[in-house]
Amino acid sequence: MLTALLAGPSADGAWCGIIGVPEFGAEAAGQLGVDLERLVMVPQPGEHWLSVTAALTDAVTVVVTKPGGRVRDADAARLAARLRQRGAMLIALGDWPGAMAKLTVTESVWSGLGRGYGYPRARMTTVVSVGRDGARGRRARLWLPDDRGQFRSVSAEETPGVQRRLEAVS
Amino acid sequence: MVELTQESMAQEPMLTRSIVLWCPDWPVRALERAELVTDDAPVALIEKGMVFACSAAARAEGVRRGLRVREAQARCAALVTHPYDPAFDARSFESVLTAIEELMPGVQVIRPGMCALRSRGPSRYYGGERAAAAALLGLLAEHGVPDARIGIADGPFAAEQAARRASAGHAGAGRIRIIAQHGSPAFLADLPVSVIDDPSFVALAVRLGIHTLGAVAALDDAAVHGRFGQVGKRIHALASGHDASTVVPRVPLPSFERSVEFEPGLDRVDQVTFGFRATADDFLAGLTHASLVCTAVLVRIFSESDSVFERVWLHPRWFTASDVVDRVRWQLHGANLRSAVARVAVSPESVDAIGNHEVGLWGNGPDERIHHALSRVQSMLGHEAVLTAVVGGGRMLGERQLLVPWGDPPPSSHTVRAGQPWPGSLPTPLPTTVFAPPRPVSVFTNAGDSVDVTERGQVTGEPAWFSVTGSRDDASSITTWAGPWPIAERWWDASQASSIHRFHIVEADGMAWLLFLEEHRWWAEARYD
User: Fold this and answer.
1) What is the pLDDT of residue A29?
2) Are B382 and B406 contacting, i.e. CB atoms less than 8 angstroms apart?
3) Distance (Å, rounded) from C-alpha A32 to C-alpha B163?
C-alpha cells in the first residue's frame, strides 16, 4: 500500500524520500509508477532518524519514515509545522501522535494462485481510514494492484458476494 | 624543377635541430613506478582485448604488441595483465616532465614516454650535444628511468627514429645516437617504410614495392603530391629529411594541486580534517581565480609508511570547500590506515568554466534545495547513507536492486544488464518488500514435517503451515501456494553456483510471500504488501 501512496505524487513529478526502511523494494516501486530518479532513500539513519526526517522535509515533497522509537508530541508538532510550511506530506510506518489519518489494510485476497500453480496476480483489499481522535472510520475496497498493475477502487461488478439476479428474458 | 630546388634550399635552414628523449615501454614503467607490478615480472597492458605494451621479460617470451590476450597468455604462462589507462600514463609522465623542465625548459610532449626539445639551448649550455644528452640521461636515471634513449638530428621525426635506434648499451655512450647536420637523408634512407605513422600509406607503399624511406624519397615529388595529396607531400618531405615541423614547447598549466603536510603525522581523522580546512579554501580560491569550478577531485592521502590512498570523487554540481573536506573525511574513514597520515593532496580531475555554473538571482529552484538537504544528511551520516536506486540485472530480487550513493554516477553497465532477458525472473507485479539478505523461515506440512523438494523437482508434501520464527506454535495456515520454480545459476562455477526452488504462498490473513528453498532450508526473499 505504501507504493500505491507514492505512485500518484511521484508520477506528477514530486520528490519522495524514504527513511529507515531498508527492505523497500525499489524495482517494484519503479514498475508500479514511482519515478526512481526522484526517489531518495536513507535506509539506516540509526538514532538520528528524527533529524534526518526533519532535514528531508525541507527538500522532498513526500517523506516516508519508520520511527525508530517513541515519538514525542513536541517533536511531532514541530515537524507538522514544517510540513505545513513546505506543503509536504509525511507518511509514518507505525504510530504517530496527531496523525491526520491512519490507514490500515483489513482484508486482502490475492487472486491468481491455486494449490501448487499460478502466481500472485491481483489483490483485492479493504482499506480502513480512521481520522484524528478516533473519528468514524471510512472503508473502501481497492485493487492493490489489479490485473494490469494499477491501483484503483473495486467497481461494482467486481465486488464479491453481490448476487446477480437472473432475469427472465422473454 | 628549378623552383623545387629553390624551395628545398629555402627549407633547409628552417630545420630545427632537436633532441628526442624516449623511455622504452613507458606504460609498463609507469606501473612499476606506482608499484603495481614488480620490476622483473612479465607484464602486458591490454587495450580492447589486444596487447598494447609489454615488458622486456614478456617480450623475451614472445609476447608482441597487437597480439590478442589469449595468444599472449599462451606464449607466456606467467603473464600479468593490466588494463591500459592513458590518463594514468600521462599523470606519471608529468613528474618526469617537470624534472626535465627544471633542467632544460621548453619541452614538447609527443606521447607519454617520449618528449622533444630544441637542441640549440642545451648544447650551448653544456658545451656540445653529447654532453647535453649525457646530462639528460643522468637526470632520468635519478628519476627512476635508467634505460632512456636519446636521438639528436635535424627535425623531430629524424631525431625520434634515431632515438629508437640507439642501442641499449650501458650508461651513457651507447644510448645516445647523434645524426650529423644534413646527415638525416642518408640515415633515413635505410629505414623501413613502416616507421611512418600512416597505416594506409604504408600498406599501399608495400604493395607498390616501396620498402624503405629512401625509395619514398626517390619518388618524384609532384607525382606523390598528385597521387596522395597533402598527406603524401608531408610524408615525402619527412622521408627526404626535410622535416619542417618544429619543437613547440608546452606551456605548463598552472598547477591547481594543493597539499598540506603534517609533521609529525596525525592519526586521528578529525585532526587531519581540521588541519586540511585551510588548504581546501586555498584550493578553491586558486580555481576561482582562474574562473573555473571543479566537478571532480582527486584526493591523495600519503601515510608515513609511504603508501598512497587515492580516489576520485564526483559531485553532481560543483565542489565547495566544505564538500572537499567532507570527501577527505570519508576517504579517511574508508582507507585502512596502518600508520599516521603525513600529507594530504587534492587536485582537480575535471573542471568547468565558472560561467556555466553561476547561481541564478532567485536561487536555482528545487534541485538545489534537494541537493543541500541531502548533502547535510550525508555529512551527518556518511557518504553511503543517502542512496538512490537503479535497476541492474539478475534473477534474485536483492541482486537486481542496485543502491548508489547520492552524488556518485550509477555503474555504467546497469542499463545494459537490466535490459537483457533474464529467463526465470519474476512476472509483474513484483513484491514491494525485499529482504536483502533473505530471512530464514519455516514451512510445514499438515503432518508437521518441513516441506522439501526431491531431486526430481517434486514437493514432498503440501505446504500447510508457515512460520516466520521457526516454531510451530505461531505458524499461520497457508491458503494457496505455487511452486516449485527451480532456478539453477552459474552451474559452471562451483564457488558461485546456486540452485534454489522458488515458492509463492498466501497466508490465511491475505499476506503473500516469495520464498525459496535452498539446500533443504527455507528463506523469505520478499513479501507482497
Assistant:
1) 87
2) no
3) 66
CA nearest B257: which of B219, B302, B316? B302
ipTM summary value = 0.84
What count of CB pairs under 8 Å joins A to B?
Answer: 146
B445 CA: distance to closest CA in chain A (Å): 13
Domains of chain B by residue range: 17-182, 185-239, 258-355, 374-420, 433-528
Q: How are beta strands B476-489 and A115-116 bridged, if at all?
A: parallel
State the sign of the Cα–Cα–Cα–Cα dihedral B450, B453, B458, B463: positive
Q: How far is B430 from chain A (nearest CA, A)?
A: 5
Judged by a CB distance cut-off of 8 A, whether residue B400 touches chain A is yes
Residues A48-87 have pLDDT tens digits of 888 888 888 888 889 998 887 888 888 888 888 888 888 8
* B371's grid cell: 541537493
- Condensed to tens digits (0 to 9), the pLDDT of residues B251-278 reads 666 678 888 888 888 888 888 888 888 8
Q: Enter the CATH code of domain B258-355.
A: 3.30.1490.100
Q: Please indicate whether, in this complex, the C-beta atoms of B370 and A2 are within 8 angstroms of each other.
A: no
CB atoms near residue B328 (< 10 Å): 25
Q: What are phi and psi of B399, to 5 degrees?
A: -70, -35
Q: Which amino acid belongs to residue A48?
A: H
CATH-assigned architecture of domain B185-239:
Orthogonal Bundle (1.10)
Separation of alpha carbons B72 and B144, rounded Å: 28
Residue segments in chain A with a per-residue pLDDT below the cut of 50: none
Quick: pLDDT tens for B403-418.
Answer: 888 877 777 777 777 7
- Chain center to CA of A98: 18
Which amino acid, residue B124? R
Give this prediction's pTM.
0.57
**Minimal CA–CA distance to A56: which of B369, B323, B387?**
B369
B208 to B114, B204, B216: CA distances (angstroms): 32, 6, 11
Q: Which three cell numbers stand for residue A11?
A: 508520477
Report domain B17-182's class. Answer: alpha beta
> Smallest Cβ distance to B432: which of A2, A45, A107?
A2
